[in-house]
Design goal:
Layout (H helix, E strand, L loop, with lengths): L1 H13 L5 H20 L9 H13 L4 H20 L26 H9 L6 H16 L3 H5 L6 E2 L4 E4 L6 E4 L2 H13 L1 H4 L19 H14 L8 H14 L4 H8 L4 H4 L8 H10 L4
Antiparallel strand pairs: 1-2, 2-3
Helix pairs in contact: 1-2, 2-4, 3-4, 5-6, 6-8, 6-11
Length: 293
């Protein structure tokens, strides 16, 4: 099984071109499943539907969240579909097994005033302050995922045309940049980044104080620091800025399909979760204006 797992992960990396984070997630799920298979003295090619269900029940019994169990099933299903494809098995034991229903959580969202307060915190008085101001403005202006932001190269940003080219996965998308974000990024590129990087060959857009590409952890720490500086009680992560970006666009009349494209959602149902934050003003306009409201 170990050999097949290795080949499966290579297939995901080379053929499916999945990100490293997604690959690690698959690896964790399948390795955990392999341990269970070994403990129960089962053969992975001969497990049946009941064996898979017992494994999912086992995950539930040890306290795993519904979302985690659902993800595990998806990983195991992908593994067996791969084995079917390479003719190592004749039937997929996961066929017909329903994923546990995952309740869509309400995203944590900042008010416009809280966003303003947070973005006011970094002061452009030193290299770090200039960089942090640019990063926070950029995160809120684009709604990009933290992994997408830290993997950006300087050439991915077109300040003249006012957009960023997000190409973290095999699906690329161009996201507009607002005037304030463009101003902050331009100041960072001109006044801070040249002094932070240690080599002219450094391509990363956002770098740490050592001149290397900023990490996820580094980005999170920066957001947390300014959240505390702003005395905002809500838990703020880079993803909260993404949720706030989408919610504020929707509240100000942006088209849901356009928001879906900017967020990089493959399914509009993922974007529709923001509909619940539509303010009462828009609802009242709809009720007054729509003939069947």
């Amino acid at each position: 099984m170990e050999k097949q797992i290795k080949l499966f992960l290579e297939f995901l990396q080379k053929d499916k071109k999945l990100s490293n984070n997604t690959l690690q997630s698959y690896k964790r799920d399948i390795t955990q499943y392999e341990s269970y298979i070994n403990e129960e003295n089962l053969q992975y090619q001969k497990v049946n539907k009941e064996d898979i269900k017992k494994y999912l029940d086992n995950l539930k019994n040890i306290g795993k969240k519904t979302s985690t169990i659902s993800r595990n099933l998806a990983s195991i299903r992908s593994f067996y579909q791969y084995l079917l494809r390479v003719k190592k098995i004749k039937e997929d034991p996961t066929e017909g097994i329903q994923s546990p229903k995952v309740e869509k959580r309400v995203p944590s969202v900042l008010t416009s005033q809280e966003v303003e307060l947070l973005l006011e915190q970094p002061k452009s008085v030193d290299l770090k302050g200039i960089r942090d101001k640019a990063m926070l403005e950029f995160a809120y202006a684009t709604g990009m995922r933290v992994t997408e932001i830290i993997t950006l190269d300087i050439d991915d940003v077109n300040l003249k045309e006012g957009y960023v080219n997000c190409k973290h996965t095999n699906k690329q998308r161009n996201i507009p940049l607002g005037a304030i974000s463009i101003k902050a990024i331009k100041e960072y590129i001109e006044k801070a980044r040249p002094y932070l990087i240690k080599s002219e060959d450094e391509k990363s857009l956002f770098v740490n104080i050592n001149g290397k590409r900023l990490t996820r952890q580094g980005f999170w720490k920066i957001v947390k620091f300014y959240k505390e500086q702003a005395h905002i009680e809500k838990d703020i992560t880079p993803h909260v800025l993404r949720h706030s970006f989408a919610t504020h666009l929707l509240q100000n009349g942006a088209d849901l399909k356009a928001i879906q494209v900017m967020l990089g959602h493959s399914d509009i149902s993922s974007t529709q979760v923001y509909m619940q934050f539509q303010d009462e003003g828009l609802k009242n306009i709809y009720k007054k204006a729509h003939p069947r409201a």
